[in-house]
From TrEMBL, chain A:
<dbReference type="GO" id="GO:0005524">
    <property type="term" value="F:ATP binding"/>
</dbReference>
<feature type="domain" description="ABC transporter">
    <location>
        <begin position="22"/>
        <end position="255"/>
    </location>
</feature>
<keyword id="KW-0547">Nucleotide-binding</keyword>
<dbReference type="InterPro" id="IPR003439">
    <property type="entry name" value="ABC_transporter-like_ATP-bd"/>
</dbReference>
<dbReference type="InterPro" id="IPR027417">
    <property type="entry name" value="P-loop_NTPase"/>
</dbReference>
<protein>
    <submittedName>
        <fullName>NitT/TauT family transport system ATP-binding protein</fullName>
    </submittedName>
</protein>
<keyword id="KW-0813">Transport</keyword>
Automatic annotation (TrEMBL), chain B:
<feature type="transmembrane region" description="Helical">
    <location>
        <begin position="104"/>
        <end position="126"/>
    </location>
</feature>
<dbReference type="Pfam" id="PF00528">
    <property type="entry name" value="BPD_transp_1"/>
</dbReference>
<dbReference type="InterPro" id="IPR035906">
    <property type="entry name" value="MetI-like_sf"/>
</dbReference>
<dbReference type="InterPro" id="IPR000515">
    <property type="entry name" value="MetI-like"/>
</dbReference>
<feature type="domain" description="ABC transmembrane type-1">
    <location>
        <begin position="66"/>
        <end position="246"/>
    </location>
</feature>
<feature type="transmembrane region" description="Helical">
    <location>
        <begin position="228"/>
        <end position="247"/>
    </location>
</feature>
<keyword id="KW-0813">Transport</keyword>
Automatic annotation (TrEMBL), chain C:
<feature type="transmembrane region" description="Helical">
    <location>
        <begin position="17"/>
        <end position="37"/>
    </location>
</feature>
<dbReference type="InterPro" id="IPR000515">
    <property type="entry name" value="MetI-like"/>
</dbReference>
<feature type="domain" description="ABC transmembrane type-1">
    <location>
        <begin position="70"/>
        <end position="248"/>
    </location>
</feature>
<feature type="transmembrane region" description="Helical">
    <location>
        <begin position="77"/>
        <end position="96"/>
    </location>
</feature>
<dbReference type="GO" id="GO:0055085">
    <property type="term" value="P:transmembrane transport"/>
</dbReference>
<feature type="transmembrane region" description="Helical">
    <location>
        <begin position="232"/>
        <end position="251"/>
    </location>
</feature>
<comment type="similarity">
    <text>Belongs to the binding-protein-dependent transport system permease family.</text>
</comment>
Length: 273, 265, 273
């Protein structure tokens, strides 16, 4: 399968004043379980450039979701710190003192009793400018123009995930965090959503941190791939392939092969046993 | 809802038709047993009961009795709903109170309600109070249990989502917790309602001078099976009408986001 | 920085027994308050004091007087409950396996659920007179619809995937019954019996008030008729001792085992009705 996106605005995108940098220092997270203390990861240092598309990859159970949740603030870190450095827009002082984060989950976590529009409205509590038109705009963006008033139960899995993405984008976040957003979908739906995500990213210029366990997906999407295992980032690869990327091209296959090799260079995680 | 409809299929597939078959079977067995064995005095019979119901309706005798019972049900139901919801929320939201009251729920669910009715009768004598108090207290553990479980079952994924989008606690309570608890709360409230009508009639049979339960008790002392059944049938009909016309309607409206109702009957 | 789960644990003492003690204390205070209030306001107080009542109840056991009414009640409960389990299981299996059975029996189940216990007691009395059969059939009729519903749901919810999995591995029927069907239906059956017993307590005691010349229900009503309120209270307490013993001695431990493999603990069915 090849990509048919037409992209030439990489330079513009990276210059976006709408994205924030992420600085992670000495990040450690432990859980107290019945048997004792489990350290999921420790001492992670990271610097993520504004506007970049970073993919975090790791085996199941390696701590990807935990790391993402600590970065997003859903979980407290046990040690270390997460810092968001606002882009120009915020430096210009338009009233915001914190960086907005849009979170997309593996299962989209929609309120089942609310329609698509209401689900988006839900996260706009303190937004005086919010109108349902805004929700509809973002639903249009993800291709759900015909489904504004549908309940999640009346949407397909892919459509539900689109609502989740529209919801995250609708708060105009500087940072977009996605936790295996496409892993529950069939490959065809996932592929078209991937392409849409890329074009939205190009258009809106967000800093993206995307979690997956799928190497092809990672190479297809990322500027930079981080590999998590044994409680640390054990590899940090720059993906210098030109966009749009053709997964069947020789250079893609070659890059993917190197990434796979690197990925399996350590044991650990559930399927590494 | 059969795709290939023939008269034979209708007889076994259509819910309404089968419902009538079930009723007819029950009436036939009853009638045969009472007429066939000459037990009309003990078992009464469908025509006798039908005639008695018609007479009650025609004479208007049923109105004051049903009014009294209905009033007590309404009060008792309100009490058990408020009490049950409060206790359920307390238990669902605070770990300490969950542990304090879990024994109350366990014992409360098994506590014979007739004892409550008897003590209410001793305490409040004949009148509205004893049936109301009985119907208010006895079913409340059921309501509390449901609300408590509803709160416990709130999807933590949704709560995390709300937190990640920095949605306030108030809004989360209203838009996530309240909405998740609603079905369980409603189920609990329906137990409360069923409990209310059963307990009010029970307490009326023990301590009242009016009401459906009192009338059943009166017919019992007259040893009239026809009388007991006539009041029971009439009462059942009124309750069924209320269930279908009021509670179902509310349920459908409140839960329209669900593709279909789970309870087939 | 908060470490999750780092909150101090005072062990079982504060975790489990303190709340229990508070609960018991609350009961005592509430009871005492009620007794005092009625003592003040009514000429003959209908609510006896807690310590007196507990002493009188203990006396009932010590002198053996309790058994004259406790044994008839318990034997009616056992027989009525057994009848309900048989009736309800047959009806529930018919409803779960055949469409016609479901449609034909549903009205009876609804009717059985809706029947006020006074009406049931009155009918039982008129048909059977003051006899062992009256409370027993009343209990069987009142309880069987609940059993039927639980069994019906249990049968309907049988995990077809698991059945097919077992078939495809050529698992024998006996093993299938023991290892798949029984654990699958056990929670529903357990829930049915748990609730069935609780309901049997209630229905048998109600019927004893109207249609028996022995039994705890009869005895409490008799004490009420002769204004012996302390006596009435003592009998209630003596009976509740048995209820508590069965609940905590038999059902709670069994429940923990029946639901051990389920983390979503569907306690909804274990007594909510
Ligand atoms: N709330 C929690 N309590 C205890 N352990 C947890 C908790 N959440 C995650 N873990 C543990 O942390 C590890 C990483 O989990 P997770 O971040 O979900 O992995 P991934 O998303 O990479 O599959 C797992 O071993 C898991 O058991
Ligand atoms: Mg994960």
């Amino acid at each position: 399968m090849s990509e048919h996106t037409t992209d030439d605005g990489e330079a513009d995108r990276l210059a976006s004043d709408d994205a924030a940098a992420i600085r992670v220092a000495g990040l450690t997270r432990r859980f107290e379980t019945g048997e004792g203390v489990e350290t999921v990861f420790s001492g992670i240092d990271l610097e993520i450039a504004p506007g970049s598309f970073v993919v975090l990859i790791g085996k199941s159970g390696s701590g990807k979701s935990t790391l993402l949740d600590v970065i997003s603030g859903v979980l407290e870190p046990s040690e270390g710190s997460v810092e968001f450095v606002p882009g120009d827009r915020d430096a210009a002082g338009n009233g915001r003192n914190s960086v907005e984060i849009g979170h997309v989950f593996q299962s989209p976590r929609l309120l089942p009793w609310d329609t698509a529009v209401e689900n988006i409205e839900f996260v706009h509590e303190n937004d005086p400018d919010y109108t349902d038109d805004l929700a509809r705009e973002y639903l249009d963006l993800v291709g759900l123009s015909a489904h504004y008033e549908k309940f999640p139960g009346q949407l397909s899995g892919g459509q539900r995930q689109r609502v989740g993405i529209a919801r995250a984008l609708s708060i105009d976040p500087e940072v977009l965090l996605l936790d295996e957003p496409f892993s529950n979908l069939d490959e065809i739906t996932a592929d078209s959503l991937r392409r849409e995500l890329l074009s939205v990213w190009r258009e809106l210029g967000k800093t993206v941190l995307f979690v997956t366990h799928d190497i092809t997906e990672a190479v297809q999407l990322a500027d930079r791939i981080l590999m998590l295992g044994d409680g640390e980032i054990y590899a940090d690869l720059e993906v210098d392939l030109p966009r749009p990327r053709d997964v069947d091209s020789a250079e893609f296959v070659r890059f993917r092969g190197r990434a796979v090799e690197r990925f399996h260079s350590i044991d650990g995680g559930e399927d590494g046993r | 809802m059969s795709s290939t409809t023939g008269p034979g299929r209708l007889l076994v597939e259509n819910r309404q038709v089968v419902f009538l078959e079930a009723l007819a079977t029950a009436a036939a067995v009853w009638w045969l047993a009472s007429a066939g064995f000459g037990l009309t005095d003990t078992l009464s019979s469908p025509p006798l009961v039908a005639a008695a119901v018609a007479e009650l309706l025609a004479s208007g005798e049923w109105v004051p009795q049903f009014a009294a019972t209905g009033r007590r049900i309404a009060y008792g139901f309100a009490i058990s709903t408020v009490l049950g919801t409060a206790f359920g929320l307390l238990m669902g939201l605070y770990g300490f109170w969950e542990k304090v009251f879990q024994d109350y729920i366990t014992v409360g669910l098994a506590f014979p309600s007739v004892f409550i009715a008897l003590f209410a009768a001793m305490a409040f004598g004949v009148g509205d109070t004893a049936p109301t108090v009985t119907a208010g207290i006895a079913p409340f553990p059921f309501v509390a249990q449901n609300v408590y479980q509803g709160v416990n079952n709130v999807d933590t994924d949704l709560l995390e989502m709300a937190r990640s989008f920095e949605v306030s606690r108030t809004r989360t309570l209203g838009r996530v917790v309240f909405r998740s608890v609603l079905p369980e709360w409603f189920a609990g409230v329906r137990y409360g309602f069923a409990g209310a009508w059963k307990l009010v009639t029970l307490a009326e049979a023990i301590a009242a001078e009016q009401g459906v339960g009192f009338m059943i008790q009166t017919e019992l002392t007259r040893l009239s099976m026809t009388g007991v059944l006539a009041w029971t049938v009439l009462f059942g009909a009124v309750i069924a009408v209320f269930e279908y016309l009021v509670l179902r309607r509310i349920e459908e409206r409140v839960f329209d986001w669900r593709e279909q109702s789970a309870v087939a009957w | 920085m908060a470490v999750e789960g780092a909150r101090l644990r005072g062990g079982d003492l504060t975790d489990r027994w303190l709340p229990r003690a508070v609960g018991l204390g609350l009961t005592f205070v509430l009871w005492l308050g009620l007794a005092t209030w009625f003592e003040r306001t009514s000429p003959v107080s209908p609510i006896p004091y807690p310590v007196e009542t507990l002493t009188a109840a203990a006396d009932l056991y010590l002198t053996g007087a309790v058994f004259a009414h406790l044994l008839p009640t318990l034997s009616r409960i056992v027989v009525g409950f057994a009848g309900a389990m048989v009736l309800g299981t047959v009806a529930g299996v018919l409803m779960g396996t055949t469409a016609y059975g479901e449609k034909f029996l549903s009205p009876f189940v609804v009717l059985g659920l809706a029947l006020p216990s006074v009406a049931l007691a009155a009918m039982a009395r008129l048909v059977w007179g003051f006899s062992f059969a009256a409370p027993t059939t009343a209990a069987a009729i009142a309880v069987s619809p609940f059993v039927a519903i639980n069994v019906w749901k249990g049968v309907e919810n049988l995990d077809r995937d698991r059945l097919e999995m077992a078939r495809s591995f050529g698992v024998s029927n006996r093993r299938l019954l023991r290892r798949v069907l029984t654990p699958d239906v056990a929670p529903a059956l357990f829930a049915a019996s748990r609730f069935g017993v609780a309901l049997s307590w209630k229905v048998v005691t109600v019927t004893e008030v109207f249609a028996a010349a022995s039994g705890v229900g009869y005895r409490v009503n008799q004490a009420r008729g002769s204004y012996q309120y302390l006596d009435a209270g003592a009998w209630v307490v003596a009976f509740m001792a048995v209820v508590v013993l069965v609940e905590y001695g038999a059902f709670k431990p069994l429940e923990r085992r029946a639901f051990a493999h389920r983390d979503d603990e569907d306690v909804e069915l274990t007594g909510a009705r």
